[in-house]
Amino acid sequence: MKAEQEIERSVAKHCATQKSCTRASSEMDKRVLSDALRVYREAPKSEPSLAGTNLRRIIMKSPLTKLAAAAVLVVAVALSFHFFAASTTTAYAIEQTIQASHSVRYLHVKSFMASIPNEPIECWVEFDLSGQIKNMRIIKPAWMDPADGETVIVWKDGEMEFWIKKKNFLFIQEDQEIAAQVLGMMEMLDPKHAAANIQQAQEEGDTQVEIDEPKNKAEPITITVTYQAEDGTPAQRAILFVDRATKLLDSIEAYQLRGGKYIHFSTAEFYDYDKPIDPKMFTLDDVPSDAMRVDQIAQEIGLPQGDLTDNEIAVEVVRQFFEALIAQDYAEAGRLFGGVPAERMQKRYGHIRFVRIVSLGEPVLNPATAELKVPYVVEIEENGVITKWKTKYSYVPVRQVHGQAGRWATTGAPLGI
Amino acid sequence: MLEDRLLIWKFKHGSEDALRCMYEKYKNDLLALAVSLSNDAILSEDAVHDVFVSVAKMGARLELRGSLKSYLLTCISNRIRSLKGTAKRRENEHEKADISRPDSRRPDELAMSVEELHRVGDALMQLPYEQREAVLLRLHGGLTFREIASMQDISTGAVQARYRYGLRKLRSILNSKVQE
User: Fold this and answer.
1) Beta-strand pair A169-174/A292-295
2) Is the predicted ipTM greater than 0.90, yes or no?
3) Is B32 within 8 Å of A406 when comparing Cβ atoms?
4) In CATH, what class is B106-180?
5) How confident is the model at residue B107 (pLDDT cuts 50, 70, 90)?
6) Greatest mean pLDDT range, A106-110, A131-135, A384-388
7) Considering only CB atoms, which chain A residues are within 8 Å of B12?
């Protein structure tokens, strides 16, 4: 009698064998690719690819959130030496730097704003053997978002965990768009692709590169890259400091041209090249057990859009959110509010007796956040009297759920959480 | 995973290379799953063809709930399911191909003997399609029950039940063959 596990093993072996024996023929390759590429050329495309654009343009124009932008900036700066180092042909041993940096597996970066020198954005990165980011931990200082305070972000395979200590709040989500943008930027900075990007930048004539290798061997090599002003953004300059011995980057200083002078606005410093980072750094094991945990990966959030328009689904989400509060169904209200646990919703809204929805208005798009703000009027009962509920916000914001295509949820509620 | 995210991102931004890379990366795996599910080489090639053409047609509209691999594997199983009628017709016309039967000239390279492989393959083909699909997506594709459920819009419990029933039936078939 074969046990179930034995059957599983047999089938698994069957599958492994099948995989090792099955190969698509060249005729099949030709047929599939020919047909697929033909229809692909007619298919809708997203905004123009990042390929061929420069680092600064991406950072300046990226529609990322403040948080993600900070993360991207740090990563981009950390990796940018590939780009810069490969873009020149002087006596300076560029190939050594490229090779040295290419094999880096671990890196610790601190990025300082010149105006806030004591609170850096700090980032620990582990790369895989192919140079791709494997794990990342970012500490976002409180000045970036005083309401949240310091936030720790751990990123693994595009899955992000945010730990907001001040609010005792753990938030887990998967945002492919942000992950893809980071990776797109990395690809652009990758030496394998650098030549084409640099060639284009040089053709466009918007980048100038100068290398200074001082005679005094105690001084670092510097690479100065100047970007011309463009699309309303001022000209910028980056100075890279390269270690003489290791040929790795020590730091990068960034400047903006204001009033005819280049003003220093940020510095990134690189530490601990290839010093293995404790794997615990890439987990959030120290989150208290009583922390509010919102996991947007483990559960389905909000409502599916179905055939509704964006405005219709936004209004529907808000309608169902208030209906859940009226029914005192806090689990459902929480599911519509980004996956907030029922207990938390009850704690925040349980003391209010919602009576009815009076009206829900036409949504208004907030282009900065891609949220649709749905105006509402609801009635509550207080001491036996029915009144209109008055709160700080007269609308409920609704948007597509990150990482859950086609689903919409509220991103804030009148009383928050 | 990260590489796939980049592929998808590039694909959505109009990179034909990304589409080619996706195909090159997964074609054999998808074809092998299709063969295991259908036991029909021609139909399997058609399924892989149709899946890539439909993915290509989506362009920027492509939205994935899970990984690219799990998405493509699920597409294949869905496509095979819808092509099953054609498969039956082909079988009747003796067009059934033999790529599910590995090349017997290189048995030393196989993870299991050809005889055992055929036995398991035959047993799999005796399962109802839903059970075979659950077993193969799990054991061939390495998908979690949750991933399969999510991709197919059914409950995780339903997937687990299909998987368990499938294994039980396989056990029964294989044991009876052993006794013969």
Assistant:
1) parallel
2) no
3) no
4) mainly alpha
5) very low
6) A384-388
7) 45-46
